[in-house]
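Most newcomers find our protein records easier to grasp once they have seen one. Read left to right, the backbone structure tokens trace the chain's path through space. Once this layout is familiar, the rest of the handout is easier to follow. The record below serves as our worked example for the rest of this section:


***
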Amino acid sequence: MTIVGDADYVNGDVSKLARNSYVKRDTNFSGILYYSTPQGKFMSGCVYKMV
């Protein structure tokens, strides 16, 4: 899994990305999650945007 936080979420503090995992997502997370195989092949993805 690859976590890409958008600029509004990160806001200069990339340590916020550590609050997200496969089983738990930060309530304020805004960005994209990419899911891939262990070999790196893309499987799916989700976009989250805080309004």
